[in-house]
Each structure stands twice: as C-alpha cells, then as structure tokens.
Amino acid sequence: MDIYFDNSATTQINKEVLEEMMPYLTDIYGNPSSIYSLGRRAKKGIDLARKRIASSLNCNINEIFFTNSGTESDNWAIKGVALANKKRGRHIITTSIEHHAVLNTCKYLETEGFEVTYLPVKKNGVVDIDSLKKEIREDTVLISVMYANNEIGTIQPIKEIAKITHEKGIYFHTDAVQAVGNIEIDLKDLDVDLLTYSGHKINGPKGIGVLYIKQGTKITNLLHGGEQEKGKRAGTENVPGIIGIGKATELATEGIKQKAIYLENLRDKCINGIMENIPDTILNGDPVNRLPGNINVCFKYIEGESILLMLDQLGIAASSGSACTSASLEPSHVLLAIGLPHEIAHGSLRLSFSKENNEKEIEYLLTVLPNIVENLRRMSPLK
Amino acid sequence: MEEYSKKLMDHFMNPRNVGEIKDADGIGEVGNPRCGDIMRIYIKVKENRITNIKFLTFGCGAAVATSSMVTELVKGKTLEEALKVTNQEVADSLDGLPPIKMHCSNLAEQALKAAIEDYRKKHTKQ
Fold first, then answer.
1. pTM, 2 dp
2. How far off is chain A from B119, nearest CA to CA, in Å?
3. Does CATH number 3.10.580.10 belong to domain B6-125?
4. Cα(B92)–Cα(A7) distance, rounded to whole angstroms?
C-alpha cells in the first residue's frame, strides 16, 4: 500500500494543472517580453494566471507578484520592507515558530544592524497578542506572523494582528504557505500588507511562489535586472510555473469549506484513534484551532526518525520534527517553543492529509501505528 | 535524504540482542536525551569473554542498527578483542552510514567501552 500523509511537505500535482501547463512547456516557449505572437501568447498566459489568483484571493491583479518559491517571497517581503523603511526604524517583530525562511531572513538582518523580537507562543502555539502589543516600539517597521504553522498546524489570529499593526502604521507580512487552500482567504477583508504562498503546497508545481504586495507598500527589490513584474522582480518569468500556480490557486480555493470539513473529519478520527490506542502520547498544538488536515503528536520514550522508517517500510510517508531527520542535533524549534522538553520533542510525528486521502488509509495507519510505537518502546532505555 | 543500506535497514527492522540482562556484569550508557540518542549496553562476562550482550537504544534508525551491529561483532570475543572494535568497523559492517549519522557509530563504540570499563571497575580486586 502507498499512503501519502505528508501533504504539508509537498503535494502531488493536480492533473488539470499539469494539462494547463503542458503547452507552455512545449509549444508556447516564447519569452513573455517579446513583441511577436509567440511571446505575446506567453504573456497572455501570465495575465490569466494573475487574474485567477487575484479573483481567488480577492485582491487587485497588480498586487500579485511571482517568485520562485515561498522562501523567496518571505525573503523579499522581509528584506524588501526592512530595507525600504530603514530610515523610519530598524525593528522587526516576528514569532519563535516561523518557518526558517522567515527566521533565518530575520537573523541575517540582525547582522546588518536590524533588531528583531521573536515573540513567544502559548502552549497551544498561538501568539500572545498582549506580548505582541507590548513589543511594538516607535522604530518597529515590520511584523511578520505566519498564518498557520507548518508543524503543529496552529492558526494565528491574522486579522486581529493586522488591525493592531495598522493602528501603529507598521507593515504586516504573513507567511500563508500552509494556509492557502486550507483556510478561506479574502485579502480585502484580511487587510495584510504582504502575503506569501507557494505552488507545490496546493497541488501545483514546484519552483513557483507568490508574494501579494498591497498597493502602496514601500518595498525594495530583492532581485535586480530586467523590467519583469513591473520592474519589481527581475528574471525571465517561469511561465509554466506561473500558469500552474494560477490554476492550482483557483482549484485549491474552490469548495474550500467542504474540503475543510472532509479533512477535519479524517483528522479528528485519526487523532482520536491515536490518543485512545497509544498511551503516553501528547497531541501538539491546539485541538480545534488547527489546520484541517494536520496532526502532530509526540510519543514519549521513542525517537521520530525510527517511527518514520518503520512507517515507510509499510508504505506510509510521514514526517517528524526529530533532529535525526535533519543535520542538527536540535529537535524542532516549534516543539521547543511550545514548551516540550528535548527528549519528548524528538519523538514527534506529523501527519498531513489532503483530499486524496481517505478513511481506509487512516484505518490502516491506526492498525499499524500502535505496534510500531510499542516495538520501539520495548527497545528504549527511557521507559 | 541519503538512503540507508539494506544491511542497516535489516539491523534496524530486526535488531539483534535487544533487551536487558538483569544480572549483567557490566553496563555502559552513553548519549543524552537532549540530542535524541541514548545507548545502554549490558554484558555478561565469563573467563574474560563476552558470553552475552544486550542493548536498549533511544534513537534514530542508525542508532538502533549500530547498537545491534556492535553487539553482534563482539559477542564471544575476549574483552581485549572487543575493545579493538572501532566505530569505523561498526559502520563498515553495516555497509556504511550516511555522513551525518557517523556519530551513531561513535556512540555504539563508546557504549561498549563504557560497559567493559564498568565490568572492570566492579571486578578488579582492590
């Protein structure tokens, strides 16, 4: 059996998306900046993609910019706003549970004379609004808070934070890589200044990202060169990727409420099954206020990579915040930030579902997982 | 991620000599839970030879497999022979380890040494 429970890492490309991309990978190879028909056709494709995204997320077409990844969008949003507004101030606020694309960009800016405050989060992973308010200073120019956490799935009160930041005249960026396609997003209502997401998390292609930049936002370029993207992001456009993310965004935001209900049902069935059948297990994040398809649990006394390897032997793909899945010896910064001790954080398992998953797959997981945990615990000196 | 060898996966999925020895002559434990690796090795020694050896490990696939392999390598050996087993030998016997996992074979070697040291401490006449 092949079961894919790692949709927060990446997703399978949707067939409709691929079909729309194919002509742009083959026949319509013209450069969108060229004057002749082949170039104009490519340009038209880009225009259509931008239109689809603007209408899916409710914003203006001139507010959508294409990048090569979520990471590039995060880098651009943070460095671009920080540099463009450094005369006003050099203070940035973010959270301790951001993706590394945000955290390491902030760390880089610290080496360039910026000050960064990393907000703590509550035990359920939600940012403490009171401490956010307290940390705002005269020289704060940017606040960046992720919409939904990639590991524990916690959803942040983005609209409320946007309101607070705007009362103080501060720019607000949200990394919505995990949110788009899972949570309904209306940019006019949400009122953030910048929003990041990427194609491959929503059944689109890899190598393409979007940065929404609200009109009037003061931001410098990250990439300098040609006049692509209204002179804001140089480099010949990744036309097939842009077509792909355009279609993927349209599909991902259609029927989002029903999709969320379907995923929540799978998720809760799986959480209940795990918590009932495996003792000494901790559910990380918030039981309710979490991404519809996200589960993150820690099994005490055992280590995450071992769990993943055993699941893989049975055809199940999942992920872990264990240090052993990375080059460092530190477990997930997110699990540490919600207050878990190191040895427990090492034993985490993340399952992330998509609408392609079904109850039968969950049932299969629930028949094999208790044995895996028990076998590993039998081997553990911690028990 | 870099793939584990078939041999390593075999030692991970079917680890040899898992468990405790209640009346062990020597016990060695290395690693710490912060780093996500703990190995504990129990040995039974008779006439200077390791007659029985078992382990308990908290850790990744490589940590479990190196523990299993080191117990296989030294079972039946004299203490002096066992002390000559190096981390490289443990890794080679598993058909290699990904570079970031080499510290696991260090741990296996150290846990064995700690168990032998513990035995010698307890059994040296003052």
1. 0.95
2. 19
3. no
4. 36
